[in-house]
Amino acid sequence: MYERKIPLSLNCGLDLIGEVLYGKWKMRLLWFIHEGSQRPSELQRKIPDASRRVLNMQLKELEEHELVSKVIYPVVPPKVEYSLTEFGKTLIPVIAALGQWGDEHEERLRSVIVKRLEQNTSVD
């Protein structure tokens, strides 16, 4: 059973959004579902660096946080589709704004990330 190492803190909006969106692929999953990729295999193709297990875990967490809904069709083999809930749709402008900020500062962000990676590699 998973035991949380850091106590849960829900004191402000940033704590809350961090709890809901923490996870390497969650924002991308929400964005791709918003764009129309609804099947797990489509999402896997959009995010090939993520393992199927991790994507499934993060989709489950997004579902538990009521940001996405999952429909399982009673066919063989089972067909699963995800869609944004009305609540989940409210996050799309926020994710779009973050993406735009990243695009506007792409060179600087890439530079500082590469610099940090190089420093960490030379220390090891």
Offer a concise description of the structure:
The chain has helices at residues 13-21, 26-35, 40-46, 52-64, 86-89, 92-104, 106-123; strands at 68-73, 79-84. It is mainly α and 124 residues long.
Uncertain regions: pLDDT < 50 for 5+ in a row?
none
- Strand proportion, as a percent range, falls in 5-15%
In what order do the strands lie side by side in the largest sheet? 1-2
Task: Report the count of strand segments.
Answer: 2
Count of runs of 4 or more consecutive helical residues: 7
Radius of gyration: 17 Å
In helices, the fraction of residues equals: 55-70%
Q: By helix and strand content, what is the structural category?
A: mainly alpha
Description:
The chain is mostly helical and 124 residues long. The protein is 60% helix and 10% strand. It contains seven helices and two strands, in the order ααααββααα. It is globular and about 55 Å long. The model has no long low-confidence stretch (mean pLDDT 91).
